[in-house]
Amino acid sequence: TQGTKLAYGWMRKGQKTAVKTTGSRTRLNLMGALNLADISKTVVREYDRIDSYHIAEFFIALRETYPVSQKVHIILDGAGYHRSKLVKDWAYVMNIDLHYLPPYSPNLNLIERLWKVMNEQVRNNHYFASTTLFRQAIHRFFTEILPELAGNLSCRINDNFQVLNPASSS
């Protein structure tokens, strides 16, 4: 959302500091696909809303970067629009394999880590006077800042998950 995201700051003890913010709850609906081998090749598109139709549209945008002959694997959460027949049919046509995360596990969705980096770089402690400036800053992150940062993000955005042994009942 466009509102100022307060993340850190200093002020003298006993004093209050005013922070510019907006009452706007303007949000951008972004869809992204992350390539772990090259984070700078992340594909991100903005849509007026997220639904099955726009996910199918995103698959087409994804194929502008990755040819249909190349199998693509997409990891999704369990939202209803991710599991719709339209999305599954388009994935099949576009040579995309869909993999669904277990419920309540956003920590396993690597694109969430990228959204966090984007928020740190763009929104944290930053006031946007208008929706246009907010939108421009987000798009600038993906077109200019991310390609510069990509090489340094492998320690934060990776598939190095800790594997735990199942608990035994004995």
TrEMBL record:
Alphabetical list of InterPro entries matching this protein: RNaseH-like_sf (IPR012337), RNaseH_sf (IPR036397), Tc1-like_DDE_dom (IPR038717), Transpos_IS630-like (IPR047655)
Gene Ontology MF, one: nucleic acid binding
Pfam family, one: DDE_3
The Tc1-like transposase DDE domain, residue ranges: 2-130
Entry protein name: IS630 family transposase
Organism this protein belongs to: Photorhabdus bodei
